[in-house]
Amino acid sequence: MQLSPSILAADFSKLGDQVAEAESAGVQRLHVDVMDGHFVPNLSMGPVVVEGLRPRTRLLIEVHLMVEEPAKFAAAFIAKGADLVIVHHEVLPDARPILADIKQRGKKAGLAINPSTPVEALVPYLPLLDLALCMTVVPGFGGQPFMPESLVRIARLRQLIEQHNPKCDLEVDGGIDAGTAPGAIAAGAKVLVVGTGIFRHPLGVTAAIRELQRIG
Predict the structure, then answer these.
(1) Distance between CA 209 and CA 14 in Å, rounded?
(2) What are the C-alpha distances in Å from 70 to residues 23, 34, 44, 54?
(3) In DSSP terms, which residues pair with 66 in a beta bridge?
(4) What are the angstrom distances between the C-alpha of 195 and each of 97, 110, 139, 209?
(5) Would you call 35 helix, strand, or coil by DSSP?
(6) Could you give the CA distance from residue 61 to residue 87 in angstroms, rounded to a whole number?
(7) Choosing from 33, 36, 83, 169, which is the catalytic residue?
């Protein structure tokens, strides 16, 4: 199990320090949520945030493009230091071109699906993916509760990954904390995106990560 703290939930006045603390506590990657105000209602960070983080951390930086036109954004984030770019199935009639472009730039490629999208929609792309992201909330807002019906979806996606590309990571994002992580892991998730459950934990970042590491 790997942890990917979502910096959307961080205190941006202390972002560098909080990322350093998370790295010291043993997380393996960082999750950067990018929202365009169209695919999802909110707006969030741009490539400049990755540019600022890259010199501060050796962690893998994954950029989750919750945007209507991911091809307009992927190259800019890669240029600033992203290691993995995740795009959404729902905005792409065919994900192959952008997945190929990301890989041609020497980076890892991921594909995400919303809770309303059947996990089988990923089957044609699984051989091309480094990561499949199963959203466990409706994307666009932090702090939402985990959708219990996601457990069946995670388990089914795990089966499909084992059939089509066992090297593909299975990531979950939304409402993950010490209470929901065990179920997600048992269903087959290998990478947990955790925002509020880490950066807004009452005992602090390190204590939150230690709690999750004991589960995994």
Answers:
(1) 17
(2) 28, 10, 14, 21
(3) 35
(4) 30, 19, 13, 11
(5) strand
(6) 14
(7) 33
User: Other CB atoms closer than 10 Å to residue 64's CB: what's the count?
Assistant: 27
Name residue 40's amino acid: V
Tokens 């320090």 map to which residue?
Answer: 17
- Report the alpha-carbon distance of residue 195 to residue 192 in Å, rounded: 10
Look up 173 and say whether it is catalytic: yes
Q: How many CA atoms lie within 13 A of 116 on its CB side?
A: 3
pTM: 0.96
- Residue 203 amino acid letter: L
**Which amino acid type is present at position 63?**
V
- Catalytic residue chosen out of the listed positions 36, 83, 130, 173: 173
Q: What does the pLDDT profile of the chain (216 residues) look like in tens digits?
A: 999 999 999 999 999 999 999 999 999 999 999 998 778 777 788 999 999 999 999 999 999 999 999 999 999 999 999 999 999 999 999 999 999 999 999 999 999 999 999 999 999 999 999 999 999 999 877 778 999 999 999 999 999 999 999 999 999 999 999 999 999 999 999 999 999 999 999 999 999 999 999 997
Assigned token pair, 124: 């044609």
Q: Which of 118, 216, 120, 126 is nearest to 170 (CA)?
A: 126
143 close to 168: Cβ distance less than 8 angstroms:
no
